[in-house]
Write a structure and sequence with these properties.
Elements (H helix, E strand, L loop, with lengths): L12 E9 L3 H8 L4 H4 L9 E5 L11 E6 L6 E8 L3 E7 L9 E13 L2 E12 L4 H29 L8 H7 L1
Antiparallel strand pairs: 1-7, 2-3, 3-4, 4-5, 5-6, 6-7
Helix pairs in contact: 1-3
């Protein structure tokens, strides 16, 4: 079982964005879960984009799946799915950052929810930061609008991919190596 990063007593910093798509919830979820990270996580100053994914040895469709996003500033993080409800939501945590986030947060809990919205879907994406001692004010203050902008840009690109239709199965270790 995965040890959860964030517990009920933690004082976290939460940022949520949402976007609508004309696609059904089932189609949205099917495309969103294995989405190609470098396609949607591009640089938005001052944050790096994702260039590839390493060490993903299993399908990204169940709790316990792991991988290592690689960023264009040569940093990386550990990512693991912690919750997965097929067709509706998945949560993951990011830890062991090797960039500036390692000085601000012990880690992040991310969660995507896919909900019916008339004939389409509402996607809600939340990032919950677990600040390091004495760093909460930075995450809750000057960091938040910058990170929200990064999330909005990435979610808009996710919706573009979803609206376009078919999405490749996602990045695996072998396809990630081919991108290098």
């Amino acid at each position: 079982m995965t040890e959860l990063l964030i517990g009920p007593a933690d004082k976290t910093v939460t940022i949520t964005v949402q976007q609508r798509t004309r696609r059904t919830p089932a189609d949205t979820f099917r495309i969103l879960v294995p989405i190609d990270l470098p396609t949607v996580f591009r640089p938005v100053a001052p944050f790096p984009g994702i260039t590839r994914v390493a060490n993903q040895t299993e399908a990204w469709d169940h709790a316990g799946a792991r991988r290592n996003p690689q960023f264009d500033d040569r940093s990386q993080a550990d990512e693991q799915i912690t919750e997965y409800t097929d067709g509706h939501s998945f949560a993951y945590q990011l830890t062991n950052f090797t960039n500036v986030l390692s000085r601000l947060a012990a880690g992040i809990r991310g969660e995507f929810n896919v909900n019916p919205d008339g004939p389409g879907t509402l996607i809600r994406w939340t990032y919950e930061f677990k600040p390091l001692p004495g760093r909460r004010w930075i995450l809750a203050g000057p960091f938040t609008p910058l990170w929200r902008r990064y999330m909005v840009a990435a979610l808009n690109r996710c919706v573009d991919v979803i609206e376009a239709g078919d999405q490749p199965v996602g990045i695996t270790t072998s396809t990630a190596s081919a991108r290098s």
